[in-house]
Amino acid sequence: MQQLNCCVMVPTYNNAGTLKRVLDSILERTTSIIVINDGATDNTAAILKEYPTLQQIHLPENKGKGNALQVGFKAAISKGYDYAITIDSDGQHFPEDLSVFLDELQAEESPNVLYIGSRNMQQEDVPGKSSFGNKFSNFWFWFETGTKLQDTQCGYRLYPLKQLKDLKFYTPKFEFEIEIIVRLAWNGTLVKNVPVRILYDETERVSHFRTVPDFARISVLNTWLVIVAIIYIKPRNFIRKIKKKGFKKFLLEDLLRSDDKPKTKALSIALGVFLGIAPFWGFQTILVFALAALFGLNKAITFAFSNISLPPLIPFIIFFSLKIGAMITGEEISFSMENITEKFDFLQNLKTYLIGSFILASLSALLFGIVGYISLIFFGKKKMVVDNG
């Protein structure tokens, strides 16, 4: 603990039945402990008087686990700690597993890492709602960050404190533990699981999770995080990736040499072109990542080709959409490139434009998909010949 400059944080609220046992077990391993009494109304305060050497923070009223953790993080940072391991006071975690986090951290190449305990959710004493909630949370964390974890809800965690200094958080209750791992992942922190044991003793365990209101708060948070991820984070990461590699290297590595099969890449190209031309104004980015994930396609390729509707090409897309729409509907409309770019006369023929744009999008997607597939097959064979000498 001293070598890694790490402390243990224990947020507690009305867990008087298990608090002493948890603290005594932690003290067998370290004295670097910060206890946050989150406005407990039982005899928690009296129990903590037996530990005068521990740093204690007594909040006047209960404001939620998220708020208690944030208060604890500030205290740990002010004390100069680099890491904090959080452990619940309800007795479900084993303080002996502190060494699991420390061993992993010592072996880790990057100091910018967050470990989350991975519980065995298949054991018999795990409540069904806990197992479902964990799967639900795991899915949305993957969708928001691209990182797959086995457990995203366990409160037994190791946090890198330096990465928390400049972040402002907005949730005060249980949903905070989701917000913080997503926000840190977005900022470049590695988020990993480490195996820990779990004990669900219903005779002494006190859970303060309120199924309906807390699940609703988590759902609202995940909705917001998904929107931010689709509109800002994923495009930002994609652009950063291109800038870091360079466009030519990106095309070679991510487009031509990724592990995806030519068929998957070609379908990704086709979907990107279709979404880029079709009139899904304001929703293109959302649809790109949602549909690419749904159909198991390459999100990077789909996003790249969805940008076919760059500003210089927009007038031509509108022009040909109107042209095709007029051919299909039989309507006689008079338009020119000047009217499209300056007077926006195409808005008077919106129906014709919409019909034409979907047909143009479909035809273009088919064309780009076929050409892409043939090109990928050709370059794939050429690469095999080069690799084989």
UniProtKB/TrEMBL annotation:
CDD domains linked to this entry: DPM_DPG-synthase_like
Keywords (A to Z) from UniProt: Membrane, Transmembrane, Transmembrane helix
Organism superkingdom: Bacteria
InterPro entries associated with the record: DUF2062, Glyco_trans_2-like, Glycosyltransferase_2, Nucleotide-diphossugar_trans
Membrane-spanning intervals of the chain: 215-233, 266-295, 301-322, 353-379
Keyword Membrane: yes
Positions of the Glycosyltransferase 2-like domain: 7-159
DUF2062 domain segment(s): 249-374
Name this protein carries in UniProt: DUF2062 domain-containing protein
Organism of this sequence: Zobellia barbeyronii
Highest classification ranks of the organism: Bacteria, Pseudomonadati, Bacteroidota, Flavobacteriia, Flavobacteriales
